[in-house]
Amino acid sequence: MRILPKSALAIATAVAVAGGAPATGQVSNPNALKAAIVFNIMRYVEFPGKPASQPITLCALRGAAGSGEFAGLNGQRAGNRQVLYRSFDGSSATGCDAVFIGNGDSADIARVRQRGTLVFGDGGGFTSAGGTVGLVRTGAQIRFEINLRTANETGVTISSHLLRLASRTVR
């Protein structure tokens, strides 16, 4: 049996509870589960030029499935950082550290992608289209994929422990 370091165990537990790693149980509210996964992932990301004590601004595309659940993260603490939530209309995500755009395509991703921004979205093709983290529903579970190349291009650093938990990593 392999023993995980404390930090890896904490990540595995947090993400498994949120549904990112194999877990038992049915998805009763997939949008709430997506919000929990995004929240837990943000705990293990470093944003360029942003000290770990500064708040993270999480923006969700107005009208995207699950944007209401993301609003519930406002004021929560992701590690040492407070999460500040706001919705946006899709034209600009200026000032956002993390952005959720739902079922976005490469044009949508390009519109919101900027230095230091973690871009989340739905679907198996999301990371291949240039998004940073794709949330993929597989049966009763929601897993996440990571595009490490996009993260590196935008200057976002994702914990290696979190990378190991991703169902797929684009390099």
Automatic annotation (TrEMBL):
Q: What is the lineage of its organism?
A: Bacteria, Pseudomonadati, Pseudomonadota, Alphaproteobacteria, Sphingomonadales
Region forming the signal peptide? 1-23
UniProt organism field: Novosphingobium cyanobacteriorum
Q: Which UniProt keywords apply?
A: Signal
The protein's name in its UniProt record:
YfiR family protein
